[in-house]
Amino acid sequence: MLWLLILILTLVAGYFGLQVKHTNRIIRQVLGSIKEGNSLILEKPFLLGDNFPLRLCQNILEENAEKMERLVEESNRRTHTFNEILGGMLDGAMILDGNHLVTFSNSVALQNFSPDGPMKGRRIEAFIDAFEVLELLDKLSRGKKPSKAEFSYERRGKITVYEITCGLLSPVRSSQNEVYLLLLRDITEIKRTERLRKDFVANASHELRTPVTMIKGFSETLIEEPEISHNQSRSFISKIHKNALRLKALVDDLLSISELEGSEQAINPTNNKLSDVIRGIDLYLQDKPYVDSEKLVFSLEEEREAFPFDAIKIAMAIGNLIDNAFKYAGNFSAVKISTQLSDDRNFITCSVYDDGNGIPANDLDRIFERFYVVDKGRSREKGGTGLGLSIVKRIIEAHGGNVRVKSKLGEGTIFSFELPRIAKV
Asked: What is the rounded CA–CA span in Å between residue 18 and residue 131?
């Protein structure tokens, strides 16, 4: 009887042992499936009792798998949206980890800082050697608020100025979890415009101050000394009148530049023929007594069809070029105005040539700058403002064209501009 009892106990112990083993296996399968977010079909071993909650475990696994699938889809959707947003930006964008390794860069950042290879997986210091960038990242790592800075970047001899904005993306502050978002905007043109504006204000103030001071001084002398001689009085009045004309010319040119740069519609194109506009150029030169119309020579190619351009502005540009020749060319025999159509007749070129003194080579690169004059003494003597060629350049560029100058000392100067005859203005 004893051996039978032992056998029964052994069988019972083995049965319960198998139950525990199968239960542990199922529990491990359930836990593993939950951890990995996978679905799992559970099979009930015949040794487990009917009271084991297999159906409940199966339902939990299926619900967990569905939740994980939704979370993954949502994560992928947000990641895709995030990449689309950063990838479609006009500014450069990068994402860095806590070790300054680039984990994402959009096409603009690649083009600006690493056009020859990928950036992902490399430290930002390999592309941008600027302490301003490292300082921003250091401030963020120390819990400072997001901020921005400017830095200069040189590549292939060209210096570009960037504004960088840096922020911390990750909510957890630790060296392993920090994720930085960097936005880099090219502000080179903005900086150049600011510098030009400051220079323009300074130069305009100086140029305006000179005739105003002269007018004020001579007029005060006439008021305070009523017994001044008649000849001296006439001389003072003549100088006042001369400076008043110079002041008017300055104001007119400043208003012209303001109109060209400050208005969204700086030009008002209508269908015209350039040759017809040039033939009527006398209207724009009649208040310039130093312009000798007998020295003007025209060689104009006939145009069968009109094309859209602002006739008033183009006439002003040509008038300024003619005016410039008579003021500064010195000894010359003629000023020749010519036009020529391109072979495909899509462009027309206008040239103003004089056989005068010419312009020094060092001055040619700056000749279209505001207030830049080669001979300041001669410019003041002739009433020049230093803005005429700048106005010409603005007018031509507003029409989608370009202006050029060629000159050699003693051999004359030729200014030319090209206009598209199918203008998109």
From this structure: 68
